[in-house]
Amino acid sequence: MMAPQWINDNKVDWQRGEVTVATQIKSVEPKAMAVLRVLVEAKGDVVTQQEILSRVWGGVVVAPNALQRCIAQLRKVFNDDAKTQSVIKTHPKLGYSLVAHVSLSASERVVTNRSFKLYSLLFFSAVALASGLLWPPSDKGLSSLPISVQQVSMITSDDAPQFGGVVVDDNIIFIEGDLPQHQRIVSKHLNDGQTVILSDNLWLNGELAVSFERDALYVSRLSITDDIKCSEIAKLSLYLGEDKASVIKSSALKTVIPCVQGFYHQPQSFGQDKLLTLHRYGDGINSLQLHDLLNGMITNINHQLGDLVKLAVARDTKQLAILSHQQGKFQVSLVLLANNSLEVLQQWNVEDAVADSAIRWLSVNEFAIAATQSLKFFRVDGSAHSLMMPSRDALFAVLHYDDRFIVELGREDWDVHQAQLDGDSSNAKYENIARSIYADSSGSFRPQHPSVSVLSSRSGNKQIWLKKETTNLQLTGSQYDVSSYVWSGDGLAIIYVSHGQLWIQKIGESARKLAASFEVHSIYQWFIDNQNAKTLLDVVINGHRALVEYDLVLEEVTSTINIETQWAQRTSYDQYVISSQGGYLKKLHVNNNEIDVSDIEQTQSMKLQWRFFYRADHSLYFQDKQQNIWRLSMADLGLEKVGHYDENTLLMTDIDPQQSRYLSDAFKRKVRDFAFIN
Fold first, then answer.
1. Which residues pair with 532 in a beta bridge?
2. What mean pLDDT do residues 66-75 have?
3. Which region among 65-69, 165-169, 365-369 has the lowest average model confidence (pLDDT)?
4. What would the pLDDT profile of 374-401 be if each residue is shown by its tens digit?
5. How far apart are CA 73 and CA 71, in angstroms?
6. d(CA 191, CA 152)
7. How far from 604 is each of 460, 597, 625, 628, CA to CA, in Å?
8. pLDDT tens digits for range 586-642
9. What is the pLDDT of residues 246-305, one digit of tens each?
10. Which of 213, 226, 390, 562 is the most buried (most CB within 10 A)?
11. Which long-range contacts does 557-562 make (Cβ < 8 Å, 24+ apart)?
12. CA 441, CA 435: separation in Å to the nearest integer?
């Protein structure tokens, strides 16, 4: 039995077939694990494809792409890809080799050519720290960082949005919440996780800014007087503990620039008792002002940059990085303030995706801005480069702490809730299923098993995960999003759609692509017909949508109905129920290739949600937009209200009438969090 090993500091448990990446445990199928073991034992040498096939599969004939699938899965597990090849390298027409570092402990390190840049960065950061020059480094930029992100580690992960952060010593200080008069400023220690509320019951506008002396925060605070809204600039003094283990507030926020007509925002320290701010009045553009806080003097700064959006000041040089909008385009400028005017030193055109980003100086020579899934770095010498993020989280800011980046991420947070069928929603109780900070949706009860499956983006793209008691297990590992899936009647297999292709996977085994010659849009149902397992699909054939029955044993289409559907269920031989554009149900009967469609009158006066389910009691279950759940008997078309839902269980995704429970998608909100990237 092989002892656990570490590949690029990711623990490989050979016995369990698991790889731990950061704090996430990823299950690896046995064949892929065996391929990895062959590469590890080769100690960096090239292993031919034939040798791998012989050692892993023996004399068994396998599909031509079996080995390639295992390589793709391993790369995904280690956050590698065919382009980067930082873990597994492909040698065309030869084979594969493992180029990652392998050790027997997490702390064992060697400096290789591949990791030289990273360790050089760590060394220079340590020198800078020892010299008291870190934040910002006096002469070292961050351009030597790798050009791809291998790992994201969350710092905050609450339901409340957390944004607008700054780093002060070993603390990240940020704004929490988005409701007026209910926001607060929070400090979290980056090493021990200790959290302190610095100020509460606030209504803030924009981001936090820290003074040059690192002893105060500045923020734009909103207020309403005589039904007129305006914003002032307020100051919060900071005191550091002797061990710098926490940050505490000294007093309440103090107004330093009072409200006038319009809005002050984007405060930036410009030396002791001096602030730069943007000021907007009405629907006009932002003006740039320099405030002397001691004598109250305000100086308007002249410039030719159009509408100023965001700005940041370098502490050592007082150079300004400015995001502005002019003639329909965004631009980033490096400028100097002299004689009450801005002198442009460097300028770059940037895409519109940077509009909501903050600008942050990372060193005396470099600043950065976020643009959706990438970070843009700009140096005072005029050069620029980008860093791509591996996930689809939106980026809003990047900060520098020691040798790492902290990014502000944004995402839509969906939960899967389970609730009991109850006619009175005031008594409704629900529970979270497989709660995570990522989007979890499309919950489904696993037939004949006490577990629930969900679609979750926690592994980078949407895959099927199984929630069983206190554990979460990733079932699928497709290269693309899983868009639709259904369980077999015994709960031992799933069919799913990924990238328009149809896959089947028995639990505990690898997925297999089915021989479908069409593009699959959605899976509606799994059923048994003449002893064969079949599935009801919405597909695209020759550019047109159709409803088809597909035999999973013969792997062929047994019935095609040329009709476009939003949702459908087969209720008997040649009879289906479909949803109409008008928000009610229709019966569809097929006889000798003739289609007969008729309204189900009991539902014509209702506005139905688009999901409904056919169950073993020969009844359809669905919900309407008046928050009622209904049962329609297909035997006599009797209609009965069986439940009522609320905003926490808004979109029903599955129902178990025998146990009087159902699953639903629950949209939380767009949230923001902070994370380390490595």
1. 529
2. 88
3. 65-69
4. 899 999 999 999 888 766 678 899 999 8
5. 5
6. 16
7. 42, 14, 13, 15
8. 999 988 878 899 999 999 888 887 678 899 899 999 998 888 999 999 989 999 999
9. 556 556 789 999 988 889 999 999 988 999 999 988 767 899 999 999 999 999 999 999
10. 390
11. 558/529, 558/534, 559/590, 561/588, 561/590, 561/595
12. 10
Tell me the two tokens of residue 125: 């950061």
Q: Mention every residue, 6+ apart, whose C-beta is less than 8 A from residue 77.
A: 19, 21, 26, 28, 32
- 133's tokens: 């020059």
Please report the pLDDT score of residue 443 as a whole number.
95
* Two tokens, residue 92: 């065309």
For tokens 């003074």, the residue is: 211
Quote the strand ranges of 85-154, DSSP E: 88-91, 95-98, 102-103, 152-154
Q: Is 496 left (phi over 0), alpha (psi -120 to 50) or beta?
A: beta
Helix (H) or strand (E) holding 547: strand 544-551
Hey, what are 678's tokens? Answer: 């490595």
Q: Which tokens go with 111?
A: 């400096």
| String of DSSP letters for 26-80 | EE--HHHHHHHHHHHHTTT--EEHHHHHHHHHTT----TTHHHHHHHHHHHHTT-
Does 26 have pLDDT greater than 90? no
Type of residue found at 282: G
**What contacts 325, CB < 8 A, 6 or more positions away?**
306, 307, 309, 331, 355
79 CB-contact burial (10 Å; exposed 0-12 / middle 13-18 / buried 19+) = buried
Rounded Cα distance, 137 and 121, in Å:
12
Please count the residues of the chain: 678
Task: Pull the structure tokens for residue 577.
Answer: 């129920």
Q: What angle do CA 266, 267, 272 make, to 5 degrees?
A: 160
Q: How far apart are CA 153 and CA 404, in angstroms?
A: 11
Q: Where are the alpha helices (DSSP H) in 304-430?
A: none
Give helix 66-77 / helix 30-41 axis angle, nearest 10°.
Answer: 80
Contact 262, 280 (CB under 8 A): yes
Asked, as a colleague might, if the bond just before 450 is cis with ω within 30 of 0, I would say no
As given in the structure block, the two tokens for residue 518 are 């069409």
Sign of CA dihedral 83, 85, 88, 92: positive
Q: Which residues lie below 8 Å from residue 198, measured CB to CB, with a gap of 6+?
A: 173, 184, 185, 186, 187, 217, 236, 238, 247, 248, 249
Burial class (CB in 10 A: 0-12, 13-18, 19+), 18: middle
Q: What distance in Å separates the CA atoms of residue 107 and residue 232, rounded to the nearest whole number? A: 50
Find the Cα–Cα–Cα–Cα dihedral 68, 72, 78, 79, rounded to 10°: 150
Q: H helices then E strands: how many in the chain?
A: 4, 55
Compute CA distances 593 → 122, 580, 588, 589, 596, whole Å: 71, 21, 12, 10, 10
Q: How far apart are CA 428 and CA 612, in angstroms?
A: 20
* C-alpha dist (Å) from residue 560 to 436, 548, 563: 40, 4, 9
Tokens of 416: 């899967």
Q: What is the residue-averaged pLDDT of the chain?
A: 84
Spatial distance between the Cα atoms of 673 and 572, rounded to a whole number of angstroms: 49
Query: In 10 A of CB 370, how many CB atoms?
Result: 26
